[in-house]
What we know:
With 399 residues, the chain is of the alpha/beta class. 39% of the residues lie in helices and 19% in strands.
Amino acid sequence: MNIVHIVCRYPPYYSGMGNVVFKSAAELSKLGHEVLVLTPEYYEERELRPANALSVEEHSDELKERIDFAKRLKPSLHYGNAARLGDIESELQDADIVHLHYPFFGTANLVRKWKKRNPHKPLVITYHMDPRSQGWKGLFFKLYAEWWMPKILDSADSLVSSSLDYIQHSHALPHFKHHPEKWTEIPFGVDTEIFQPRPKPRALFEHLGLEISTPLVLFVGGMDEAHYFKGIPVFLKALTSLKHTRGLHFQAVLVGEGSLRRSYEEQAVLYGIHEHIRFVGAVSDLELPYYYNMADLFVLPSINSSEAFGMVLLEAMASGVPVLASDLPGVRSLAEEGGVTFRAGDHQDLAEALFGYFLDQENEEMWEKQVRLTAEEKYAWPLIAKRLENVYQNLQARS
Length: 399
C-alpha cells in the first residue's frame, strides 16, 4: 500500500506524536509498504542532525541521525505547532491510505475538505490528545473542539486511539458515543532492541558527576511551552519534599530542552535541590537509551489530559525501569502495568510514591523483570504495526 501520514511535528523536533509517526513509518516500511510523512518545513529535508556525543565508551565522537520518510512542506501560515499546508492535496493523489494525526491545527480541516472531494479514498485519523492551554489559546482550543473537531472526526473512515480510557474522558467522547464502531484502540509501541536493560553506564555517571550507588530518578520530555503540561514543577516540589521532609538522599536527571528549561533550573536552585539534579538538555536518539539505563525509577508527572499515553513510560519499561505516573486517563492504563500512579498535580502524593518505592528495594529485581516482559509481549513495535496494518487492509477491502 501507498500510505501517507500527516503530522504537525516530526523528528528532529522532540515530540511524542512525531516519534510515533516516525516509528510507525519505519515498521510499516519493513512490512513492504510505501510510506510518506507530510510535515511542515521547519527543518531541511533529509536533514542530518548532529549531536555532541558524551565522552563515554558506548558512544563515538559524533552521532548523526538520518530523519527518513519525511517530505517537509512549506506552510503558508504557522504558529507554534500549528501550520497551514496549502499544497497538501497534490501530495495525496497517489495515496491508498491517508492517515492524519490529530491535532494538527491549520491542516486538519484541509484534509477534511480533501476527503469530502475524494470520498473513495480511505482516511484514518489517530486522536492523540486533547489540546489544552490557558488564556486565549485555551479559548481557541475550546471553540475548535466544539465546532471543527466533530466535523474532522466525522470525515474519517476509521479512528484510532492509544487508549479508549482516554477517549472516554476526552473532547472526542461525543463522537465515540455516536460512532463506537469507528474507533479502534491501538497503543503506541516501543523498540525493545534499542531500549533494553543494560548495566549502569558508569562513564555516563562520571560525566554528569553523579554517584552510581545513589538512587536516581529520571524524567524525559519537552520543556517548551507546548509541553507545559509535563508537570516538571510538580516533580521538583516532590523532590524538595524528599530532601527536606524525609531526608532521602537521591539524584535526578531531566532530559529535554525548551524555553521553560531556565525557569525550571531556577526553581531547583530556589528549592535548594539543584546539587542533586542534572538538566542535561536534548540528547540524541542514540544516547537516550543509556539515560534510561542510569535510572532506578522513571517519573511522568503530567498535570492534565494533554498527556494521553506517555511513550516515555514504554521506553522506561522496555529498559527494565519501573514507572510512577499521574493518574490520568490513558496514562494510568499503561502506568499501572509498569508501576504505580499518583494524583495528578499533587506533589505530596508523588513524594509519598517516590519514598515508598525507595523503601521497597527488596522487590526491585521483580519490578525490572515484570516491566520488561510487559513491554516485549504487548508493546513491541512490530506487534503494533501489524495491528495498524490490519486497520488499513480492512478499509481497503471496503473501498
